[in-house]
Structures are given as C-alpha cells and as structure tokens.
C-alpha cells in the first residue's frame, strides 16, 4: 500500500502544474493573407527556446518564466516579424494570429508582395523541410493543385526519390528510393491502411482510389523516427487529409475533359466546406469529390513457351472502360480548456467498368482465340478516428487515438449478381495455318524475336497468318466461359496509439508511446472454366450466332506501330449480350475442373487464405537541443508481430486438399539516431542512423499455391519466410535561399538482411509442361547505395524581372546488389530502379501560372529468373505533363491539365527490350476546369 501511495504521489508531482515552479506557455497561429503557414520558426530572442509551426500553422512555447520576451517569427520568402509578449505566472497565453507578409526579390521591408500558388506551395515545402528534426520532403495542397495529378499516388511522384507504379496509365502504388512499394509504408494521418487489390497479395496499399483533392499535405520521411511505425525500409509517405479550418471556408471545383483513345466526356467535381462555431471552439469540415473518366489502352503481349524465349501466343488487347472515383472526408474538432478532442471519417472508392477484346494468336495450337471480357472492379475504403490531446501543466502533453479502417476489393454484378467475376467468353477458329514459325526441338511451333535469331522485331511481331486470311465468325466456335473470381477484405479492427510528450526544459524533450493494431484479412479466389454441354445440347454456338460489330477503337488500334493488326481482326459481340446469353443458358454449360483453379483441385490455394495479425509497439525517444546549431534525436522502438495464416495444402500423393495453418511471430528491435547541424540559418547538415524492416507479404506466407491457366504460371507461398531488415545510413546537405528555393545533396546506404525475392523457374505442374513456377524465398544479404540531388529556385537571383520564372529539379541514382540461390551472378533488388528524376519549369506571376513537368523512372527487375536473359523487367518510363491556370479574381481560377503528352508506353520485357512481354499505350488526356472560392 505504501508503494502505491508513493507511485500516486510521483504521478501527482509529474502532472500537476501547481506543485512545480511557476511557469507559463505561449500558443499561437502564423498566417499570411490567404492561409496558415506550416514550418515557420518561432523563437524567443536570445535563447534556444523555439518551436516550429505544424501543418495547421500552430505553435507552442512551453516552460516560460513570467516576464516579457521578444518573439521572432521566420518563414523563408516572408519578412521576419518581431513582437513583444508578456506572460504571467501559470498563464497559458493564446496570442492573436501572427500575420506575415511575403518579401520581394530586393527584400524591401514592410511591402506587401503577392506570390503565386506554385511559389506558395514551394515555400511551405521548403520551410517544413528546413526546420524538421529528420530527413523529410513535404508537398502542400498548393503544390498538388498546380500539377495534373489526380490521385494520392500521383501527387507524390514529383518528390525526390519517390516513384509510382501505374495501372492503365494512372498511379497506383507508391515507392521510396526505387525500392519495392511493399518495402515502404504509405499512411493516411499517420496510420498504415489495410490493403485490398485484385492481383496482388502484398502489403502495399493501392492509392488510386484516393483523390488528391482530399489531401492537405504529403510528408515523406526518408529516415524514420522512433515514434513512427518501423516497417518502412524505403521510408514513409504520409498523406495528411484536410482538417477543420480556423474560419469559414467554401471551395468548389468542376472540370471537364477527354482521353485521346476513348470516346465520351470526363468530369470531376469537388466541394470543401468548413467553419468554426460555439465561440470558435467547435470546428468542422466536409470535403467531397467525384471524378469520372472514360479511358482506353492498346496493348500487345507475347507469351513465351517452354524454351523460355519462343512466342507461343501473341495477345492483341484492346481495352476501353469508365472509371469513377469518389471520396469523402469529414472532420470535427472541439477545443478544451486544456487540449482538444477530434473525430474524423473518410471514404474512398474506385469503380472501374472495363470492356476488353483480345485476339490471341495461338501459334502452338494453330488457332485464333477471340476473347470477350467484361468486368467491374470495385475498391472501397472506409475508416474513422477518434483522437484527443490533453495538456498537463505547461510541459506535458498526452495524445491518443482510436481508429478502425476497412479496405475491400470485389467484382461488380457482371455477368450477373451471382457470378460476380472477371467475365470472359472465348471463341476459337482452328486450323488457321500459321506461316513462318519454327520448332527448335520443343515439339511446338513458336515465333522468335530478332534478338533470338528469329524474324520478328520487338515492335512489329507478325501475326503469322497466311496472306489474305480473314476471320470467319461462322467457323469461330464458343470454347468456354471463364469466371475469374477475386474477393479481398482487410480490416484494421482496432488501431490504438498513445504518446506522451514531456518538455523537461527548453533544450530537452522526452517522448514515449505505444501502438496496437488488430488486423484481419480474408482472401477468396477461384478461376472457373465452363464448357458447352454438347452431349445434351448439340454443337456449341459460333460467333456468327450473335450480333457483331467492330470493337471500340479498332480503326486506330496500335497505330503507334508500323504493323497493321486490326485489318485481320474478327468482328465481336457485345459483352452485355454475352452476359445475358450466359445467364439465360447457364444450365447448358459444365464446369471443366481440369482447366479450373479451385480449392478442390488444389489450383487456387495460394490466394484462398485468412490472416489474423497483431502488431504491438512501444517506443521512447528524446530530442536534445544542444545549442543553437546542434539538435540530436534518438530512441528505440520495439515491435512485436504475431501472424497466423489459415489456408489449404494440396497433398499430391493423396490427391486431396486439407486445411492448414502457419504462424510467423517475431520481435523487431529498431533503434534510430538523427543529428542536425545548422551551419547557418540557411544551411543544414543531417546524419541519420536507423534500423527498419518489412514484413513478408500476406500471399507469400500462404501455405498453398495458385495456377493461372491464362499465364501458365504457378504461384506458391512460403510460410517459413523471415522478415526483411535494413540498417540505414543517411547523410544530407541542405542550403536554402532567402526568398525561394533550395539546393540539397545526400547519400544513403542500406544493408539489407533476408530480402524476399520471387524465385522463377520452368517446370511441370499437374501434367502441364513449361509451367513458370514462382515462389518467394529469402535471399542472402543485399545492399543499396544512392545519391539524391535537388535544386529548386526561381530566377529572381539572375534579375528581378525573372522572379516569376523558376525550375524544380531532382534526381536519385541508386545501385543495389543481392545474391540469390542458384544464381552465380549478383543481381539487383526486385523492383529497384537505378535512376529517378524530375524536371519542372514554371512561370507564376500570381495571376497566370504554367508548369511543364517531366517525370522519369528507370528500368527495374520485376522477377528473377535462372539467369539474366530470363529476368523480367519493366522498362524506362518518362511522362511529360503540363498545367496552366489563370486567376480571374481573388475567388475564381480557371485551369487546364494535360497528361502524357508524349504518349509514353509501358514496356515489360524478358532479359532485354527486344524480347517484350507487354507493351501498352495510353494516349493523351486532359481536363479544363474552374475553381471558385466563396
């Protein structure tokens, strides 16, 4: 009992302001004439006591003795402001809003200077980066709004060291420093989100469902701190949503547009409304957005045979579709006498209604297959958070949050509400008599690219049909109907975190915290093939039995190439008519279990599994301001991961499937140290030593395997995988310019333990030969070394008349090495690009702005084979985008966005570009819009 009393007395001494010496606290907000200013430095003159404004422009200066102080407020690009403030004993003083004025090129005092939106965004980013305690990059909503980037993934591709992976030309996954996207963490408001995606079982979150209009800031941490989740080898990308404003806000936006390859009109619309009531104690915000666009892509995919190089099948794919993205973000905030409480909710969805016609030249089967494909892909995210911030005295803050998130992928009602699937109807015309093929001892007739001694250039692969050949719908018979079914639901049922900040004195801040997550994931998959029941219903229908027409986009299909494929295409049936035919005649089809991938036959086990996983973390850290020049941040985070995967295992010798479970539990010890040396007010040197990790992907832990007939691939899991760890060193030099801009250079090195790679080999499965066997394995240790450069500057330093012109450029160069079993050579880390760069030229004179942006990502290995010629690569990708705007008045702005001006193709190849696996073109797209602020 005495011990309990002592503990209670100690807690009282720590938390009660009245027991300690008399102290005071200053709080306030820094703004300009338009918005709050994040990253501003607020300092007590003559002391080391300072604070940096947060993303809402707010700051706190605790542990002040009673008296009068000179307060200095600095924000690059703005005039420094000095003001005198007095505080009394036990006073928590809230200052009136501190307004700053932008400075001109000559730095003339007290002149109010207007600045453009591009430059405003760059100033916010530079100030936040300059005054941070770790190595970060920031982009604000001003910066996002001036680029033609429509979703959260695309919003960050201009940041140094950031790259994205695309789907149908739109950004989907985010990666840091060229590493695999699942090796970096992407979060919203500090919380990693659950994942749900059609074709992956990784931990990487697809952000194509999340509109960029919901984002206020993006913060990229290249070297993480102990108060951040440690599963971030590349780094963390944190999307910060808009919060309750300090005053009445009503913004609207509407735009119309088109896609070069698609018919129809695109539109987007958004509204943001917020205000404060109840004596400004209660703030609220609601932000809604919608974006609908028609899209189209042209694609060809050579599929390789059992010798690894011959083309057994040439697929000519023509996609059209309509994508709809909807987002909703709501926020409430109530100010207490000693803190605040808040509640927020978010919703985002992507609905992709896709029609896909595919002519497959089956060289190995001497037939042409005409596939009619229709599907509606739906990704839906929802979540909410309740949070609080409570002050104990003038030096201690307790923060907490309780949240829950859910992410789901499913197919819509195609072909009907019971068979929700990727719906495929295939018709075959046999005995076409291909010419110019070779049998190189495989027993099959293949085509070969020029790099392999064949006659086919990579960008003009012949269809090898006889001269004068024409498809005959009456000879093109129904082969089968495929129902490709995927359902993924992942829930972070409970995410709880709590942080305790204790400002011991003006130079030392202690911080402790805990975080817990309870995760549940359900994945279901089947690939069902149905054949016509000819025994009971006679011959299968032919393509001629349906009403036929040219497929959309046939006339300009792959007109980027010097070969004409479309003239020998068959006419096609409507996918709606085929869906109706299937629904009305379903009883006339039989399931072909031998061709299908099911749980019962062992072909779909790798993607039918449930996951239950818990993460429990505790950390402690300290930030020490040694003097005006040196700041040290260090600490330790411990994270326990408990994973249980329930799935199925196929027993080949007994030809049966049994339920199975696998567990993977481990403790991650993650120390970190950050040192910042401020050589001057405008120059920083930074050093970071950190340890991070990446958990194995969910699908990699599955005890089963999945066979995909369309790709002749068998994917299996590996429940014995270890997590991947990385010891990281970062050194960064930063110099900032008085009005706008920076130059920075940094080097980084990562020593990576147990990297996971996809082992690929050719073998047999279930009596099928030439199957590509893909299985995750832990490789030997790997390393990554890189150089990161950035230069942002307006041209006002050359001449005042050029201050509206500017350049933003950055480049990251990387080299990685890893060794994997059965390979004598050293290979690169999968999905690691060797170079990334951005170059942006802009003009911004407050009223008129224009920006031309170039984004480049170098080639990278997707999967390792048995040697370099069997490795599969994604090729270089360089996009060119343009945006311009005109500020009609203080409230209205018109803008134009143009994407993919050079119609850059996606390239996927084996070994070298002359041996393609996929080439895809997206066309140019654009939007014309109006933004109005009430």
Major β-sheet annotation = 28 strands, antiparallel
Number of DSSP strands?
A: 49
- Structural class estimated from helices and strands: mainly beta
Quote the average pLDDT: 89
Number of helices: 7
Radius of gyration (Å): 30 Å
Instruction: Pick out the low-confidence regions.
Output: 1-21
Shape: globular
Helix content: under 10%
Kindly estimate the percentage of residues that lie in beta strands according to DSSP.
over 45%
Distance between the termini: 63 Å
Report what the structure shows:
The protein has 934 residues and is mainly beta. Helix content is 6%, strand content 55%. The longest helix has 14 residues, at 2-15. The protein is globular and about 95 Å long. The protein starts with a helix and ends with a strand. 47% of the residues are buried.
Name the descriptors:
single chain; 55% strand; 934 residues; mainly beta; five-stranded mixed β-sheet; 6% helix; 28-stranded antiparallel β-sheet; globular; disordered N terminus
């Amino acid at each position: 009992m005495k011990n309990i009393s002592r503990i209670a007395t100690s807690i009282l001494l720590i938390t009660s302001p009245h027991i300690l010496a008399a102290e005071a606290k200053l709080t306030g907000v820094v703004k300009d004439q338009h918005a709050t200013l994040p990253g501003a430095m607020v300092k007590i003159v003559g002391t080391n006591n300072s604070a940096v404004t947060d993303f809402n422009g707010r700051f706190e200066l605790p542990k002040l003795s009673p008296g009068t102080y000179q307060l200095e407020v600095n924000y690059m690009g703005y005039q420094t402001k000095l003001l005198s403030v007095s505080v009394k004993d036990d006073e928590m003083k809230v200052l009136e809003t501190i307004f700053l004025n932008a400075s001109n090129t000559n730095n003339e005092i007290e002149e109010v200077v207007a600045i453009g939106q591009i430059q405003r965004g760059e100033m916010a980013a530079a100030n936040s980066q300059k005054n941070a305690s770790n190595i970060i990059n920031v982009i604000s909503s001003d910066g996002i709004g001036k680029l033609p980037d429509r979703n959260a993934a695309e919003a960050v591709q201009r940041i140094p060291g950031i790259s994205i992976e695309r789907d149908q030309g739109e950004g989907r996954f985010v990666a840091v420093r060229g590493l695999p996207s699942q090796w970096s963490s992407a979060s919203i408001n500090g919380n990693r989100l659950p994942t749900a995606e059609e074709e992956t079982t990784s931990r990487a979150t697809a952000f194509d469902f999340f509109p960029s209009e919901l984002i206020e800031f993006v913060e990229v941490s290249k070297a993480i701190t102990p108060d951040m989740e440690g599963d971030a080898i590349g780094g963390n990308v944190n999307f910060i949503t808009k919060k309750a404003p300090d005053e009445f806000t009503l913004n609207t936006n509407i735009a119309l547009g088109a896609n070069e390859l698609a018919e129809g009109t695109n539109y987007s619309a958004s509204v943001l409304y917020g205000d404060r009531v109840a004596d400004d104690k209660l703030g609220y915000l609601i932000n809604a957005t919608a974006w609908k666009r028609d899209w189209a892509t042209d694609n060809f995919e050579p599929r390789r045979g059992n010798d690894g190089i011959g083309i057994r099948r040439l697929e000519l794919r023509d996609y059209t579709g309509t994508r709809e993205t909807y987002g909703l973000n709501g926020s409430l905030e109530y100010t207490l006498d000693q803190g605040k409480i808040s509640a927020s909710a978010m919703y985002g969805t992507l609905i992709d209604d896709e029609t896909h016609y595919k002519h497959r030249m089956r060289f190995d089967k001497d037939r042409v297959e005409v596939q009619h494909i229709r599907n509606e892909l739906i990704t839906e995210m929802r979540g909410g958070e309740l949070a609080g911030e409570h002050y104990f005295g003038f030096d201690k803050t307790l923060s907490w949050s309780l949240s829950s998130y859910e992410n789901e992928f499913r197919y819509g009602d195609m072909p009907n509400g019971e068979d929700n699937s990727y719906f495929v109807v295939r018709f075959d015309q046999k005995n076409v008599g291909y010419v110019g093929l070779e049998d190189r001892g495989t027993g099959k007739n293949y085509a070969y690219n020029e790099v392999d001694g064949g006659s086919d250039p990579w960008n003009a692969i012949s269809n090898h049909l006889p001269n004068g050949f024409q498809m005959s719908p009456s000879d093109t018979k129904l082969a089968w109907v495929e129902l490709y079914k995927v359902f993924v639901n992942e829930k972070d049922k409970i995410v709880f975190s709590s942080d305790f900040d204790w400002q011991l004195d003006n130079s030392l801040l202690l911080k402790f915290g805990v975080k817990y997550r309870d995760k549940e994931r359900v994945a279901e998959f089947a690939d069902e093939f149905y054949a016509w029941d000819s025994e009971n219903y006679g011959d299968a229908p032919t393509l001629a039995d349906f009403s036929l027409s040219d497929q959309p986009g046939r006339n300009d299909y792959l007109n980027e190439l010097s070969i004409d494929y479309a003239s020998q295409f068959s006419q096609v049936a409507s996918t709606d008519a085929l869906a109706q035919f299937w629904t009305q005649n379903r009883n006339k089809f039989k399931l072909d279990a031998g061709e299908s991938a099911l749980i019962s036959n062992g072909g779909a086990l790798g993607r039918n599994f449930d996951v239950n996983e818990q993460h429990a973390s505790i950390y402690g850290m300290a930030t020490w301001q040694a003097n005006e020049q040196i700041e040290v941040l260090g600490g330790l985070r411990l994270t326990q991961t408990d994973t249980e995967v329930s799935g199925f295992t196929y027993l080949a010798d007994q030809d049966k499937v049994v339920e199975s479970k696998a567990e993977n539990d481990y403790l991650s010890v993650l120390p970190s140290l950050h040192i910042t040396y401020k050589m001057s007010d405008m120059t920083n040197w930074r050093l970071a030593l950190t340890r991070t990790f990446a958990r194995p992907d969910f699908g990699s832990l599955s005890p089963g395997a999945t066979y995909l007939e369309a790709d002749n691939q068998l994917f299996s899991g590996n429940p014995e995988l270890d997590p991947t760890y990385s010891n990281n060193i970062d050194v960064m030099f930063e110099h900032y310019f008085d009005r706008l801009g920076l130059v920075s250079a940094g080097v980084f090195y990562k020593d990576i333990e147990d990297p996971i790679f996809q082992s690929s080999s050719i073998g047999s499965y279930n009596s099928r030969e030439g199957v590509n066997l893909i299985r995750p394995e832990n490789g030997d240790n790997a390393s990554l070394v890189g150089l990161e450069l950035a230069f942002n500057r307006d041209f006002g330093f050359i001449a005042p008349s050029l201050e509206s012109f500017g350049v933003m450029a950055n480049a990251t160069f990387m080299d990685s090495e890893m060794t994997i079993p059965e390979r004598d050579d050293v290979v690169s880390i999968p999905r690691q690009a060797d170079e990334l760069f951005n170059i942006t030229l802009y003009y911004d004179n407050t009223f008129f702005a224009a920006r031309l942006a170039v984004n480049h990502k170098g080639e990278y290995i997707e999967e390792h084979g048995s040697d370099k010629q069997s490795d599969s690569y994604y090729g270089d990708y360089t996009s060119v985008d343009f945006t311009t705007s005109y500020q009609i008045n203080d409230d209205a702005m018109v803008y134009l966005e143009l994407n993919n001006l050079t119609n850059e193709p996606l390239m996927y190849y084996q070994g070298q570009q002359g041996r393609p696996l996929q080439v895809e073109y997206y066309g140019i797209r654009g939007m014309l819009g109006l933004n109005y602020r009430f």
